[in-house]
């Protein structure tokens, strides 16, 4: 099968186990920092939950290292990382916070809801099964205690981070889609603006074709008449007149060949066609009168001499600015008061068209316009070396102002105006985005705060579970009997009490000869009368050999008096 080198290079670049899809490089520095942070989290959780993880002894270090390795590859292998940490968490809850990190990352990067649901449910099921099976083996507690512990761990380190990661992933994908759509819309707008400018240039070229073609037609006509006249008066000059006529006709043919390809789409025909009177005061007054007949109250003013002596391109630009402005008023502000002012002075021509707020808002079908006509006007005025401004007024109307040179230079038509900017569309303005370092710092701080919240929930849940477990053991004790181990007796009775031991001193019956130690738990129930009922448990090599029950006075008696306590010996 054919293959190309660039894809292979890209595959080699993203083959790092520490980098996610689309990330290049080995990301070693980030991996080292995450490894140190993961080790600190494991030690912190182990310190808080040491009674649960203490049964692992030396194996806890190896399991912790495996958990750190799994959390480092969570971006490249999210499924393996989360499932592996879920298994480890069932045996060693010290890696619970690492599991939360892996669950968040996996849920954020998996795109389909089915994949996320399967992975999170699978991780939860694995944790529950492993924790319930390992709790009795590691002597952490009964199987029911393992199920309750796994429920706390799954809820706080798999479900909650998974839901947060799902929301974050959806937000990332939504923002990415919005950025792409915004970039596409911006690109489409730029293309449309470029098309408007090019159409205006085509219109200008068509106008030049008409003007120059008209002048060349006159030259050709006069050259033909001159040739006929010279044939009778000065035959020697007839050839020169013929040369002028042929040159004029050839120029007309070349002009049609170059500019005629523009077609009629760039021309103004009918009453809007270019004439010698276009852009003069009479022409502008005719436009104003036409708008008045259409129901628009227009106020017109003209300062300075007429424009009949100015170049046709200047007059045409003035005509286009007024006509386009009045057309927009008819479309989007029908009935609004309009002022049209033309000022011709100091080799400049200033045109200002301003309208107020329409009495009736435009209908929904009218919309706000595309602004393509103003873009074409701005292009036409810029090609003459002038400038055009169009903006909304504070009162809610609209204003268009053009400043055009009265006699533009010969190179004005070739002004440096780029019809299309080939640079990528900028979605956000400059300074609106944070730098990459700032975004990473914000993300790191947010992640640490979220991880602290997950850890607080987990510690609180585990503490409540351990307290409830210890309380349940004391509420349903196993009855002590001779032959039981010391550990089982201590779980069945209250802890040894120094006050009870002191009260029994000198008043207790003799201990068995082979007893190595005795346990004096605080008596249950309310003391009867003035005597304290005591139960003594004596052990030999941590094996219960005797249970003695006796009573002692609660008020100290004379030492010479023999003890009057009743005693039974089991």
Strand order of the largest sheet: 1-2-3-5-4
Radius of gyration using CA atoms only:
48 Å
pLDDT averaged residue by residue: 78
Query: Helix fraction?
Result: 55-70%
Low-confidence stretches: 1-12, 263-267, 364-368, 414-420, 425-432, 556-569
SSE arrangement, N to C: HHHHHHHHHHEHEEHEEHHHEEEE
What is the chains' assembly state? single chain
Strand content: 5-15%
Q: What general form does the structure show?
A: rod-shaped
Number of helices: 15
End-to-end C-alpha gap: 89 Å
Structural class: alpha+beta
Specify the biggest β-sheet.
Answer: 5 strands, mixed
Tell me how many strands there are.
Answer: 9
What attributes does this structure have?
single chain, 570 residues, alpha+beta, five-stranded mixed beta sheet, four-stranded antiparallel beta sheet, 15 helices, 9 strands, 55% helix, 11% strand, rod-shaped, disordered C terminus
Task: Please tell me about this protein's structure.
It is a single chain. With 570 residues, this protein is of the alpha+beta class. 55% of the residues lie in helices and 11% in strands. The chain contains 15 helices and nine strands. It has a five-stranded mixed beta sheet with strand order 1-2-3-5-4, covered by helices on one side. A four-stranded antiparallel beta sheet has the order 6-7-8-9. The longest helix is centred in the N-terminal third of the chain and has 91 residues, at 143-233. The protein is rod-shaped, with a radius of gyration of 48 Å.
């Amino acid at each position: 099968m054919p293959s190309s080198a660039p894809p292979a290079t890209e595959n080699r670049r993203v083959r790092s186990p520490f980098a996610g899809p689309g990330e290049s490089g080995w990301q070693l520095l980030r991996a080292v920092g995450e490894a140190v942070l993961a080790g600190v989290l494991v030690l912190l959780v182990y310190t808080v939950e040491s009674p649960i993880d203490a049964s692992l002894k030396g194996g806890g270090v190896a399991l912790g290292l495996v958990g750190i390795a799994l959390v480092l590859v969570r971006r490249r292998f999210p499924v393996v990382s989360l499932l592996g940490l879920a298994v480890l968490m069932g045996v060693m809850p010290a890696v619970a916070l690492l599991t939360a990190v892996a669950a968040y990352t996996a849920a954020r990067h998996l795109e389909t809801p089915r994949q996320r649901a399967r992975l999170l449910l699978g991780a939860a099921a694995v944790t529950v099964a492993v924790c319930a099976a390992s709790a009795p083996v590691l002597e952490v507690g009964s199987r029911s205690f393992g199920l309750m512990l796994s429920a706390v761990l799954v809820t706080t380190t798999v479900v909650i981070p998974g839901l947060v990661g799902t929301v974050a992933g959806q937000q990332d994908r939504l923002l990415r889609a919005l950025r792409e759509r915004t970039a596409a819309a911006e690109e489409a707008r730029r293309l449309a603006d470029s098309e408007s400018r090019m159409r205006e240039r085509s219109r200008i070229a068509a106008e030049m074709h008409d003007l120059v073609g008209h002048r060349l037609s006159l030259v050709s006509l006069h050259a033909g008449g001159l040739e006929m006249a010279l044939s009778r008066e000065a035959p020697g000059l007839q050839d020169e007149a013929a040369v002028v006529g042929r040159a004029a006709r050839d120029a007309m043919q070349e002009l049609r060949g170059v500019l005629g390809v523009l077609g009629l789409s760039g021309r103004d025909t009918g009453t809007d066609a270019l004439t010698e009177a276009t852009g003069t005061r009479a022409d502008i007054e005719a436009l104003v009168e036409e708008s008045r007949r259409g129901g628009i109250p227009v106020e017109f003013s003209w300062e300075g001499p007429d424009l009949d002596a100015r170049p046709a391109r200047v007059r045409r630009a003035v005509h286009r600015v007024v006509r386009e402005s009045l057309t927009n008023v008819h479309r989007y502000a029908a009935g609004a008061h309009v002022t049209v002012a033309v000022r011709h002075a100091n080799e400049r021509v200033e045109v200002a068209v301003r309208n107020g707020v329409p009495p009736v808002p435009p209908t929904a079908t009218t919309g706000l316009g595309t602004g393509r006509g103003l873009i074409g006007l701005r292009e036409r005025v810029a090609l003459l070396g002038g400038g055009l401004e169009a903006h909304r007024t504070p009162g809610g109307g609209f204003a268009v102002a053009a400043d055009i040179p009265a006699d533009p230079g010969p190179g004005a038509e070739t002004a440096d105006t780029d019809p299309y900017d080939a640079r990528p569309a900028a979605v956000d303005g400059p300074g609106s985005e944070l730098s990459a370092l700032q975004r990473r710092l914000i993300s790191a701080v947010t992640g640490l705060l979220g991880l602290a919240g997950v850890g607080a929930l987990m510690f609180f849940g585990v503490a409540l579970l351990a307290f409830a477990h210890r309380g349940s053991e004391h509420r349903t004790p196993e009855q002590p009997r001779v032959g039981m181990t010391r550990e089982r007796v201590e779980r069945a009775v209250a802890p040894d009490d120094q006050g009870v031991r002191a009260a029994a001193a000198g008043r207790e019956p003799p201990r068995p000869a082979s007893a190595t130690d005795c346990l004096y738990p605080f008596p249950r129930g309310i003391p009867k009368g003035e005597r304290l009922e005591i139960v003594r448990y004596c052990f030999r090599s941590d094996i219960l050999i005797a249970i003695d029950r006796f009573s002692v006075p609660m008020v100290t008696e004379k030492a010479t008096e023999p003890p009057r306590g009743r005693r039974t010996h089991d």
